[in-house]
Amino acid sequence: MSKKKDQIQEDPQRYFSKKYLFISIALSLATMAFVIWLTYTPGVLKHLKAKRLPGLIIAIVVSFMRLGFSAAKIRYLSEKALGWMASFRVMLSWDFTSSITPSVVGGAPMGTYAMTQEGFNFGQSTAIILYSLLLDQLWFAMAVPILLISGIFFEVIPNNTGFVGHASMALLYIGLLSYAGLLSYGVFKNPNAIRKVVNWLLKLPFLRRWNNTIGDEVDNLVEYAHELRKKPKSFLFKAFFLSTMSWLCRIALPTIVVLSLLPADVILSVLRSLAMNLAFLIMPTPGGSGGVEGLFAIFQGPLMDRKAFIGLAVFAWRVISYYISIGMGMMATTWYINRSVVDTLSDEAAEEKLESDLPS
């Protein structure tokens, strides 16, 4: 654990990759341009209804509400030791890093670093971030049965995805339920079970090289699980409520954008938004760029009567959910990096002064 702590403290910019930022934005712009090129027809803007456009303002408000609930969750998990401004900084930097790294990697390492910069030790920071991720997994586990039951009555997974799309979503559901089940059992019932399962998996040849990295994270989770079991159930319920509200805002956003342009089946749009947000979790590109725009068009596009509006909807949704987020997140992340540089220079200056004051 100490080795990883040193890596984070000495090189925070490893989580702020300009290369990944460029790739993420380039993929997003290229995909949006392609979707617009496929669906746009001249004169389509004349069909926009002014009375619907205020919905885009509502979408922006909902986007900020999502950030607010996420910040409130982090603040609550810190038992309010983290101030509101600091909580927003942590979440913005976490969101930003998630937006420029592969979805399967996420922004948790930057979240941990941000927490240490706010005065928490590495163990506390890791525990809070891991618990936040656990709450997300519990929410995913709750979402899967909802989608499975809804699939009986609604075409949640569009038929245009074919066998591959349906099979991929089925595997995703199984993976999310298995992972959430293991974490829930391990954290709330038998923490050592997590360590046993992970140690068994790490014996596989293609996973051995991750032994040290994953092993450290598992030790952190097991250690915190014992502390978590001592907390009252009300603590878990409130934290889960804040996590759920954050995700509901995220789920509502695509539907609000679609309804801001055209009438649509609200229930089906929400269910498809839930399904595609789960699919976002396995996008291999930085921030899921390229893939998430495509999934939006595939899941939400068939619900729009005017196909020429699909590209506009993708563009509006991505600006609100992604570009505004990376703009604010870049400022928060840069603030942490600059602060780290200043602290490092101050420490070096103090050491040099101390050495110069020592008798020769």
Describe the structure.
The structure is a single chain. This protein is mostly helical and 360 residues long. The chain is built from 13 helices and no strands. It has helices spanning 2-10, 18-39, 54-77, 84-100, 108-117, 122-153, 162-188, 191-201, 211-228, 233-261, 266-279, 291-300, 310-357. Helix 2 (18-39) runs parallel beside helix 12 (291-300) and helix 3 packs across helix 4.
Rg computed from alpha carbons, rounded to a whole number of angstroms: 22 Å
Helical content (DSSP H or I, runs of 4+): over 70%
Structural class: mainly alpha
Low-confidence stretches: 1-10
Shape: globular
Secondary-structure element string: HHHHHHHHHHHHH
In whole angstroms, the N-to-C terminal distance is 37 Å
> Hey, roughly how much beta strand do the residues contain?
under 5%
How many helices? The count is 13
Average pLDDT for all residues: 79
Main beta-sheet strand count, sense and barrel state: none
Number of strands: 0
Keywords:
mainly alpha; 360 residues; 75% helix; disordered N terminus; single chain
